[in-house]
Amino acid sequence: MAKEGRNSIEETIIEAPLTEHELENMLVGFLEALEKEHRLGLTDGKKDKETAPQGESA
Amino acid sequence: MRREPIRIAVVQLARLGDSVQSLMALRAAQQLYPELEITYVAHESFAVAAERCPWIHRVVKLPTDSLLRPLVNGKRKARGMIPEIAAWIEPLAERTFDMVVNWTYSEASSYLTGILPARVRIGYSRRRDGTLSVVDGWSHYIHSIVQTETLQSIHLTDILTTQLLTALQIHFDDPVEENDGQTVTSKSFFEIKRSPFVCDGWNHPGIRWIALQLGASSEEKTWSPAAWAKLASMILRRHDDTRIILLGGNCEKEIEAKFFEALRAEERTNGTPSAVFEKRLHSKVGKTAFDQWAQILADAQWTISADTAAIHLASVLGTRVLNVSVGPVRFRETGPYGNGHYVVRAPSPESPLSPEAVYASWTYASTEWQHRRELPFADHLRNLESSDLLGKMEVFRSKIRPADVGGGIHFETLIDQRITLANWYGQVLGHLAREWYCGWVPPVGQELERTEVSPELVQNLRKLSEGIEVLDKIYGEIIRTADDLFRKTKTLKSEHLMKLSDREKIHELGKKLEELETLSERVGTAQEPLQAIHRLSKILMHNLTGKRVSEVAEETVGVYRFLRIGVGGLRNWTNHTLGLARPVAVASSSSVVSLADRRAPSA
């Protein structure tokens, strides 16, 4: 892998921390999206099934 | 010389199988960058694999179930739960990470990635205003291709490894040394608590243990209990030195019951008392925690499993895997990683995969030492008196490419077959991605054989050639127009106050760009192989960062130059494949010579 791959990565630097309002919105976005993914069964591997990794097939 | 630690946070909020693949990529990166100090963020129920990796600095568990319960029950709203989620994030956000790596590629994980303070982010993130931000090349590829219906041929473990190593090389330093493309499979990958006793005969030198992982992540990917039972019966009847251990979670007890029911019926049919076989078959379904499960997978000679976490865990533990690929599985992306694993599947997701086909694959794979892979698979089927299986199954063997031909895993087919347009295109995309993101160009036509090219593919590629030429012209015109716009706007002192003639010219160029993009949409969506490049164009344009017209125009030039590399690669592959399909004559020396090459020079 060479430095020529430079165009594949862009740097994002957050110069200032998120404001309180921005952070709150991000946290709400996180929780709502997580709830949505949970309802779709994406956070537990198998919806309606036991999820502890006891020989997990997920 | 000791290098400064690089603090990275890896967000992996997917399932256990994804987690193991991420851990493999991380381990590979850490071998080249020992200074990596890794914080690993995972759902509480899937964190155990990372917790067993002594080389991970910290594992942070998201208490998903308890956190979400009030929301799922409708008792509270997300905004009311800010204190709880903030309290969980606070220790993570105390110090700025050198890099946050989001390998979940989900909506929720993108918010978490946006929240964590970091110098560099890769994977999906969020801008300050909450909009989705996808900034690195591999994430563009995942967004526009991997997470769509389009097939592609690069394994996810290779994508994640390359993505992280590229970022580390660009933003930090060169790796300490090359590892010659060695795979990250090791019995010491995990530090597991081994049980002194698994079952009678375990680890006996004269017994071969095969682990069968029943179940899968979804019903459509699950092989039927009756099929598993028939496979087990065939193995036990024909191989006296073999025993089988069944694996699965508590939720797979029902499959286990059906398995035994089917096995008894199978043995009654074959006139053998079932108890004889049941003594050689031990079930651990619902009885193993992670450590014993990993111990069994590590100690067994073979793991046979559908699309489950077991195939990743077994391969990382150095156990050979036969992946029974059932349903809509993209095994080239998520199959077992390493050398010498096998994948068997039916020719289409809808057609059934027979136990006889899986048995034939396993017997071929487990006798490699004997036939040294010089025995064609078709001959193996003939020896088993199962030639009728040809055409009803596909078999692949995994192979890590040497570093000088690009590295990464490749699945070689063992049964000659014609390649479909979708699979052909999957191979082309793998080639383009390596050219785009690795700065290394593999030879056109790598791993494509003349015998795979069908008349139908040729017909499709001829049609595609026309679309490629049109799209290339449109992209060329967009580059010229955006470049004109850039030149016209970069010298302006203000984007608001300017000469009327300048305003008219800028308006004219903007309108032309709009028309060209509409045209490219029409051409780019007309043929499936062009759609992926078109989707990539949308994602790249969405993620432009310029504020001024001149900056956006300059970035647009860059985007379409980049896309044109893809169009050029697609053209090269199309021409190469059409060239392979030219009529050939067999010379007396048996070498294959193209008729075109034998043509006498024109007068």
Write a structural description:
The complex is a heterodimer of chains A (58) and B (603). In chain A, 34% of the residues lie in helices and 0% in strands. Chain A is elongated. Chain A is built from 1 helix and no strands. Chain A starts with 19 loop residues before the first helix and ends in a 19-residue tail after the last helix. Chain A has one helix spanning 20-39. Chain A has 58 residues and is mainly α. In chain B, 47% of the residues lie in helices and 14% in strands. Chain B has helices at residues 16-32, 48-51, 64-72, 82-89, 107-115, 137-146, 156-171, 225-238, 253-269, 274-278, 290-299, 309-316, 331-334, 355-366, 368-371, 377-383, 421-437, 455-490, 500-524, 528-542, 549-580, 595-598; strands at 6-12, 36-43, 58-62, 97-102, 118-122, 124-126, 132-134, 208-213, 242-247, 281-283, 302-305, 320-325, 342-345, 394-400, 409-413, 584-586, 592-594. Mean pLDDT of chain B is 91; it is low at 590-603. Chain B has 3 domains: 6-171, Rossmann fold; 208-417, Rossmann fold; 419-603, no CATH class. In chain B, strand 12 (320-325), helix 13 (331-334) and strand 13 form a beta-alpha-beta unit. In chain B, helix 8 crosses helix 9, helix 18 runs antiparallel to helix 21 and helix 19 (500-524) packs antiparallel against helix 20. Chain B contains 22 helices and 17 strands. Chain B is of the alpha/beta class. The chains are: A mainly alpha (58), B alpha/beta (603). Chains A and B meet through helix 1 of A and helix 3, helix 4, helix 5, strand 5 and helix 7 of B.
